[in-house]
Amino acid sequence: MGSSYMFKLTTLLYALLVLMTASLAHARTYDDVIASKYIEFAVYRDFAPYSFMQEGEPAGIDVELGKYIARELGLEARWLWLTADESVDDDLRNAIWKGSVIDRKKADVMLRVPYDREYSYAQDGYGLPRNDMVVMLAPYHKESWQLVRDLNKTGEVRNLAIFQYQAIGVELDSLPDFFLVGIYQGRLRENVHHYATVFGALKDLNAGKLSAVAGMRSQLEWGLPNRPGNFDIDDDGLESLGRKTWDIGIAIKENYRQLGYAVNDVITAMIENGDMEKIFSQYRVSYHLPSTYELDAE
Question: I need a surface site. Which of 66, 170, 209, 225 has the fewest CB within 10 A?
Fold first, then answer.
């Protein structure tokens, strides 16, 4: 009984472990989601004003959006907190189609995904689709890179040349960071100050240590709740930035499109009835229609 019994027991335990892991990793169909009475959204951790913890509770634009979608579908909203990896491809893998390397847990829907046809159909180095495991749809906002300037320091100068003499803050390794240290043959480099988050830069701007900060418009607006009249936000000087604006949407696993269509219908209605804009206003962020809706209006 000894060795034979132990072998069978070990085999059984291993099989159970595999089944449990597969269950955790299993992506859920629309019917699964409705039957469970909850829907789980992947949102980025510590990413104000979109998703963050406030007084021990989830908060932010994307959290409010998730709650709204869940309510319209008659479900409870739950959250899969996602730490940003090296690329959006990695985030999609971890959140939607494969799961984290630790527990393989996945969400039903990922929020704040770049909605871009070129990106959606991009190919890898072997000519194969990079994102064939996910579907990106339901654009709900247009984000942009902007500058907030202290006009008492920059005056009427609207180009970037002034930052050869004035200090400007950026989040480390962001697109504005790479852009500013490289433009004008690197002549701005000494005056580009790096911060772990854009909010650290805004703190120094308020303290008079910087003349400007470059970042996402939503974060600049959120981070300056009592913006003085001499702080101006626009995109002047960023004309040669690779991409100044981009749409934001959702992602689901490729073979569960019915769920995506249901969420898309809710988001479309929110945009059309003004509820989407109200959520952004709640967080002091100006709302901008995705490019799809702008084209439809022309």
Answer: 225
